[in-house]
Design a protein that fits this description.
Blueprint (H helix, E strand, L loop, with lengths): L7 H9 L5 H13 L4 H18 L4 H16 L13 E6 L6 H13 L5 E6 L4 H14 L2 E3 L8 H15 L3 E6 L7 H17 L2 E9 L5 H13 L3 E5 L8 H10 L3 E5 L7 E3 L2 H9 L1
Parallel strand pairs: 1-4, 1-5, 2-3, 2-4, 5-6, 6-7
Antiparallel strand pairs: 7-8
Helix pairs in contact: 2-3, 3-4, 4-11, 5-6, 7-8, 9-10
The structure holds guanosine-5'-diphosphate (2 copies) and magnesium ion.
């Protein structure tokens, strides 16, 4: 995990002190805000920890550190972060605005699933730019997945999704990952199109997961994007991308609590291996550093 986005650096001063004092609480609050937890969660965490410190009558910053990890872990664990991919084929639709990392995530995810021995096909339902199909093809090859391409530029995305599932059913491919065009969450027409893609897929097979990719560096705006997609796309899980950048780890908890949708995957770079499942325990421990 990138040192940048862990709380470690911001908290280091607090935890080397001899005792917990008023500055400790100010420093903790500032560290949580800086890490993008947002004001509400920050306030609740600080209150919770003040209570615990009072209750246990401790003055040792080391106890506070342990309590902070526990408190974060407890909040992360309220959500079921496991991917549901037991259907055959398991169909996964990947959605989000332009440039958040949908196509890259699909390549990394194919590789991730391939390591568990799964067979995968990706569907190029981003049909508006020929380059988008080529980009997905490159990632599919890296990730060891088959690809179903549009038959012509601008083909209806729903029909490409349809053909991809047909391919999986015909060949016994276990997992289908459908790439979609980026769309602004504010454009109703394009959001309706997503509804159509879902409807067409669901005639053939249930959709196992609709993954909304959010760029962690967008901070709280990501929460607004998420809300619009939840309404139209039936999102079942979040993928937080670009956590290797200048992102702040607190965003992961903020967006999960605000939307009520579990975080299922974390993207931490542009390499094929830079995608991991979301493990609350490990994440909380690493976050506090
Ligand atoms: P899409 O428009 O949502 O399909 O986004 P792309 O997959 O094309 O990614 C947009 C840009 O973000 C590309 O330059 C990717 O290399 C980059 N990107 C995607 N995921 C990550 C990540 O986890 N970390 C970093 N640093 N860059 C990423
Ligand atoms: P802008 O925000 O209007 O400059 O345009 P975009 O780059 O979002 O898209 C350009 C045009 O292509 C839009 O007017 C859309 O009608 C169309 N478009 C882009 N992506 C999609 C898509 O996923 N589905 C459909 N139906 N149209 C799209
Ligand atoms: Mg793309």
């Amino acid at each position: 995990m990138a040192e940048k986005w862990s709380l470690g650096r911001a908290l280091r001063g607090m935890f080397v002190k001899e005792t917990i004092d008023e500055n400790t609480w100010d420093d903790l609050e500032a560290a949580l805000i800086t890490a993008d937890f947002g004001p509400d969660i920050t306030e609740r965490i600080v209150e919770d920890l003040r209570d615990k410190v009072d209750r246990y009558g401790t003055t040792d910053p080391k106890d506070l550190k342990r309590m902070l990890v526990e408190s974060l872990e407890e909040r992360f664990e309220r959500f079921d972060t496991t991917l549901k991919l037991t259907e055959r084929p398991a169909v996964v639709l990947v959605v989000g605005i332009n440039g958040v990392g949908k196509t890259t995530t699909i390549g990394k995810f194919a590789h991730f699933l391939g390591r568990y021995g799964r067979s995968i096909v990706v569907g190029a339902a981003d049909t508006f730019r020929a380059a988008a199909v080529e980009q997905l093809a490159t990632w599919a090859e890296r990730g060891g997945a088959a690809i179903v391409r549009p038959e012509r530029e601008g083909q209806d995305p729903a029909s490409v999704a349809f053909q991809t599932i047909e391919y999986a059913q015909r060949t016994g491919t276990e997992i289908v990952l459908v790439d979609t065009a980026g769309r602004l969450h504010t454009k109703a027409g394009l959001m309706d199109e997503l509804t159509k893609v879902r409807r067409v897929i669901e005639k053939q097979a249930p959709i196992s997961e609709v993954l909304l990719v959010l760029d962690a560096t967008t901070g709280q705006n990501g929460v607004l994007q998420a809300e619009a997609f939840l309404e139209h796309a039936g999102v079942t899980g979040l993928v937080i991308s670009k956590l290797d950048g200048s992102a702040k780890g607190g965003f992961v908890l903020a967006v999960q609590e605000r939307t009520g949708i579990p975080v299922k995957l974390l993207g931490e770079g542009e390499g094929i291996g830079d995608l991991t499942g979301f493990a609350p325990h490990a994440f909380a421990a690493q976050l506090v550093g």
